[in-house]
Amino acid sequence: MKATGIVVEYNPFHNGHLHHAREAKRKSGADVVIAVMSGQFLQRGEPAFVDKWARTEMALAGGIDLVIELPYVYATAQATDFAKGAMALLDAIGCESFCFGSEQGEIEPFLRSYQLLKEHSVEYEEKIREAVQTGISYPQALNRAYASLRGKNEEFADLTQPNNILGFHYIEAAKKSGSTMKPLTIQRIGANYHDPVTQGVSIASATGIRKVLFEGGSVDGLSPYMPPSSLKALQQCRTFGSWQQFYPLLRYAILREQPENIRQFAEVTEGIENLLYEAAKKAPTFDDFIGLIKSKRYTRTRLQRMLTHIYTGFTWEQLRSYQAPAYLRLLGMSGAGRNYLRLQKKNIGLPVISRAADLTDTMGMLDVHASTMYLLGLGTEQLKKEYTTPPFYFGDRDSK
C-alpha cells in the first residue's frame, strides 16, 4: 500500500481540511493518508481548542486513515523544529510523499527557494544576525534576509505567507534528513488563517470558527463550514481550550516561582522573566497579561510558546536533551489504516505505541504530563484520560 503524509492540527477539523485530505490523496495517488497531528498544545503556543481524541475522531471521519501524535517537544516548537519532528515521523512510518497546503500552490518555487538558501547559507545567516541586531523579531529577520536574496524574482516562493513558511520548512527538514519522500503542495483555498467567518462561503478559518464559539455562537451555526462529524464532536464538548480558560493556572505557575527560576523554562530569554512575573501580578485576564508583555521584539506566538512551557514545566535542559522522535504514538485508524500498519509492520522505522502506559522514555512521559496539564486546564476530572483512551478505530471504511 502507498501512503502520503500530511501535518495537521485540526483546531478544529473543517471543510478546508477535508479538501486538503482529499486532494493529498488524489495528487499523490496514495492508498492511505497519514496525518501527524499536534497533541494537546499547538505550534503557536496555545492549548488545543478540543482535545486530541476529539480531533482524531474528526480526522478519521473526514477521510484520514492513520493519526499519529506529534510529540509535545516538536508540536510546541518554532517552525524548523516543528517540521523536523513531523517529517521524521512521516518518513519513519513509510510515506512515499508528503503534501501541504500553501498560498503558493506549486512545488517548484519552494524547491528553488531551498536551493537558493542552501547555496547562500553563509550570507543568509549573516543577514539574519544583522537584522536581529536592529531589534526586530526573529521571524521578521528571516523574512528580511530572505527578501534580500530573493529580490523581486517571482520564481521563488513567497515566504511571508504562513502556510508557505511551514511548507518550506517541511521541504528543508525532509531534504536535510536525506528522506526520499516526494514533496507535494495544493493551493490553499477559502479563508486565510486569521479571517473571520463569512456568510455565503463553505470554507472558514479555524480561527474564525473558534471565535464564533468563544463569543457565544452555536455549533449548529457552523454547519456551512464543517463536516457533520466535526459538528457532532464539538457538540459533545463541555469546555473549549484557550489561554483565557487556562490563565488562572498559568498565573499561579508564574507567581509560584521567583523570576530567576522562571529562566529555566524553555524559550524564556533575555531577562523577560522579570516582565512576566510583574505582569502576572497585575493582569486579571490573559488578554490583559499579553497586553503588558507583547512588544516589537516578542511576537505573540513566541510569548505563548514560552507560557506553554512555563505552564507544563518544560525546561531548557529538557528541550536540549531531545534529538529525534523515538516512537509513533497511534491515536486512531481507519480500516485501510489498520491494513497499512499490518502490511508495513516490518518496514516501519520506529515502534508504534498505542497505549500511554508504554510511553516509558522521557519524551513519551512528557507527552503524558502535558496531556494531564491540558485536561486540568479544561477543568475536567478525567485526568487519567491519557491512560484510559485507546486508539480510535473508525469502522471498516476504506479510504475513499
Could you provide a short overview of the structure?
The chain is α/β, with parallel strands linked by helices and 400 residues long. Among the domains are: 50 residues, no CATH class; 78 residues, no CATH class.
Walk me through this protein's architecture.
- The chain is α/β, with parallel strands linked by helices.
- Among the domains are: 107-156, no CATH class; 243-320, no CATH class.
- It contains 19 helices and eight strands.
- Strands 1, 2, 3, 4, 5, 6, 7 and 8 form an eight-stranded mixed beta sheet that branches.
- The model has no long low-confidence stretch (mean pLDDT 92).
The overall pLDDT average reads 92
Molecular shape: globular
Query: Can you write the helix and strand succession as a string?
Result: EHEHEHHEHHHHEHHHHHHHHEHEHHE
Using only C-alpha atoms, the radius of gyration works out to 21 Å
Q: Major beta sheet, specifics?
A: 8 strands, mixed
Number of discrete helical segments? 19
Q: What is the terminal separation in angstroms?
A: 14 Å
Give me the secondary-structure category. alpha/beta
What oligomeric state is this?
single chain
Helix content: 40-55%
Strand content: 5-15%
**Beta strands, count:** 8
Low-confidence stretches: none
EC number: 6.3.4.-
Binding site for ATP: 7-20, 101, 163, 188-189
GO molecular function, one term: ATP binding
Enzyme class: ligase
